[in-house]
Specification:
Distance between the termini: 52 Å
Helix content: 40-55%
Shape: globular
Length: about 180
């Protein structure tokens, strides 16, 4: 199960999902989406949910409790946003043991560690903001999931990440002190 939630706005990733749907749904997977917004994309998403009724479920609701349920209940967390000023949802995915599938932009770029195939990393990269890259990333996720030991490793790696401000603050304190000493 792949989970996703986002506001339906330009560059939120829904455009890629719609474009790559046939390739994505050729795999044995399901996607659960929480979405909110007014857009022509809603009509396109509804058409997809009718085309793939056993593979795509959409709820037009957007609250923190539902978001956490989607993350915790999914095997992967889709984050195909073109621009993401905050890495909070990425952090939620890692914390819940739900590996993010992510396009690097904004705050995520400073903390993401991509799966290297050898047991290291927390996430799967969407290399470019296009449907081919999203399809490739989903295919990679499905391959990893087919090997339970690999999937458990990438999921576990995320839960070991420390995102607390106390850790980041200590890092910045070291940098600040070095600057003062120069």
């Amino acid at each position: 199960i792949f989970g996703m939630f986002a506001k339906i706005v330009p560059d939120s990733g829904f455009d890629l999902l719609i474009q790559a749907a046939d390739e994505i749904f050729s795999h044995n997977l399901q996607i659960v989406i929480l979405a909110l917004g007014n857009s022509d994309k809603i009509e396109k998403l509804e058409k997809l949910s009718k085309k793939y009724p056993d593979k795509l479920k959409i709820k037009y609701k957007f609250d923190e409790a539902s978001q956490h349920l989607v993350i915790a209940g999914s095997d992967y967390f889709l984050l195909p946003k073109k621009y993401d000023a905050s890495a909070l949802n990425f952090q939620y995915g890692c914390t819940f043991g739900t590996p993010p599938i992510v396009f690097v932009s904004g705050g995520i770029g400073s903390i993401v560690e991509f799966w290297d195939g050898q047991g290291e990393g927390t996430s799967i990269e969407i290399e470019k903001y296009n449907k081919a890259s999203l399809g490739k990333a989903v295919s990679k996720a499905v391959e990893i999931f087919a090997e339970p030991g690999l999937w458990r490793q990438i999921a576990k790696n995320g839960t070991y990440e420390e995102f607390a401000w106390t850790v980041n603050a200590k890092h910045f304190e070291v940098i600040y002190r070095r600057m003062l000493n120069k």
